[in-house]
Design goal:
By secondary structure, this protein is of the alpha+beta class. Helices cover about 35% and strands about 15% of the residues.
């Protein structure tokens, strides 16, 4: 199966899940993929956004919110240097299995769509690909952006 990864902000106790961006969760899958999670990470790390051409022109509070923080890419096979419910665990497990860390993936993915160029490019890509399946969180965000192209995700029963 392989090792799965998430991007973790240790300072703010937040994380990004590649699956929410439509990326694979293995290191090479999301680092060589479409780059959506890396775009989101760039926006989170951006210090000084909105002051020049080529910036994302938005007042969204997420832009730059991770600037200067301690960030790492954590795998589910990583060393168990943490503890959750009295048992050793790694940061990947702690982020997913506890209420200590907040998943800001969907909120960050939504920020990317505030850019008109990206929004139009993504619309054209969806029309061209004509896919009928998406990862759950990805589909939720894409349906919000393009309800005419992407079906509403099915709810868990």
């Amino acid at each position: 199966m392989g090792q799965y990864y998430i991007v973790v902000n240790k300072t703010k106790k937040q994380f990004l899940n590649p699956h929410s961006f439509g990326e694979g969760a293995k290191l090479c899958e999301f680092s060589f993929g479409s780059g959506t999670i890396l775009t989101g990470l760039s926006f989170l790390l951006a210090n000084g956004n909105g002051r020049g051409g080529g910036d994302l022109h938005t007042n969204n509070n997420l832009i730059g919110s991770w600037s200067g923080d301690e960030i790492s890419v954590e795998g589910d096979y990583a060393d168990e240097d943490y503890e959750h419910e009295g048992k050793p665990c790694n940061l990947y497990m702690l982020a997913f299995e506890s209420d200590t860390y907040q998943d800001i993936s969907k909120a960050t993915y939504r920020v990317i769509f505030e850019d008109d160029w990206y929004r139009q490019m993504r619309r054209e890509q969806i029309e061209k690909d004509n896919r009928d399946w998406y990862l759950k969180d990805e589909q939720e965000v894409l349906h919000e952006q393009f309800p005419d192209l992407v079906a509403k995700p099915k709810t868990d029963a």
